[in-house]
Amino acid sequence: xxxxxxxxxxxxxxxxxxxxxxxxxxxxxxxxxxxxxxxxxxxxxxxxxxxxxxxxxxxxxxxxxxxxxxxxxxxxxxxxxxxxxxxxxxxxxxxxxxxxxxxxxxxxxxxxxxxxxxxxxxxxxxxxxxxxxxxxxxxxxxxxxxxxxxxxxxxxxxxxxxxxxxxxxxxxxxxxxxxxxxxxxxxxxxxxxxxxxxxxxxxxxxxxxxxxxxxxxxxxxxxxxxxxxxxxxxxxxxxxxxxxxxxxxxxxxxxxxxxxxxxxxxxxxxxxxxxxxxxxxxxxxxxxxxxxxxxxxxxxxxxxxxxxxxxxxxxxxxxxxxxxxxxxxxxxxxxxxxxxxxxxxxxxxxxxxxxxxxxxxxxxxxxxxxxxxxxxxxxxxxxxxxxxxxxxxxxxxxxxxxxxxxxxxxxxxxxxxxxxxxxxx
Length: 425
What we know:
Elements: H1 4-15, H2 20-27, H3 31-39, H4 60-68, H5 74-83, H6 90-102, E1 119-130, E2 133-142, E3 148-153, H7 158-172, E4 178-181, E5 188-192, E6 195-198, H8 200-209, E7 212-215, H9 225-238, H10 247-262, H11 274-277, E8 295-300, E9 306-309, E10 312-315, E11 324-329, E12 335-340, E13 343-349, E14 357-358, H12 407-419
Parallel strand pairs: 1-4, 4-7, 10-14
Antiparallel strand pairs: 1-2, 2-3, 5-6, 8-11, 9-10, 11-12, 12-13
């Protein structure tokens, strides 16, 4: 390859009258190269070689389309390309996809505002742990007024989730037309291209209040940006430096913060106070609607008239032995109720100690005496006298009756025995 400076030198030597052989000797180039440079009217111009087509070239349009759809995993893309006949490997594919990953998927977006009473957005937020449980916050934000409701819990199960909805509806004094969620397991069990499969109990709850559940698109948290902003507001304004004694104290502080700060100050976007704008929402009235959010499990009553719940056993009327019943415990409640077809059979104080046995003797009234548990039917004394209290009541016969004597009698007996010591016949 001859550079521009070498071309100038070849031309200069030729003008001096040197032969091609002499020019070749001085420049170190072949005579054919010297002749070729002398025929050129200008210095040589070199540029990058035209790219050679790669094995991936016929499939680049497909890869671009899949990346725009959010598929950036090269292993997945390679499987799809191989199915289409792609003969290459993964190295070239990764080189092609890497710069596409760095590009922003969205450079602009359009703000979405909802009409009064149309929508509320719901989400969970994590706040570490408390009392060896995960501490979470249930957050609901009305789309039009930006009215906020925050409640801290130690569980994210379905029963707690629905109970928080009831509290939020009561705080807003109404129900919006739609509720927007992401992929919460309490709401949707499975999402497919053909449709979503909602949790049946959640759908029952939504039907009672006449609200329509909607789901965000996967991977698009900005779809429910109003509640996402509320979560950030709680973490940035309410939570830092917060101290509390228990969960009830924390929720009292959260309600006070919502009333005096979050819902009482002008919103940065609407420039209106959420509590005042709530009057324009026109929410659906509650009209006395409610929903039983209790923990509900089906149980088969054992032969000894007991049902099990979380490691403890509770009695039911003996006529329901070996029959199916339903056990209900309200969220945060202290009682347990056994029902059949919404008819209450038994109510007990909820035991906080696993393995406890909670018995109501009235549940065994009318049961034949021979079939009663010993703990509830102590054996009577053979002579008709009741046994004294003590361990083993009803299991063993009564202790023998012993006459009581004064201690002076034993002193007299001891003196008489001493007089006969050493006496022999």
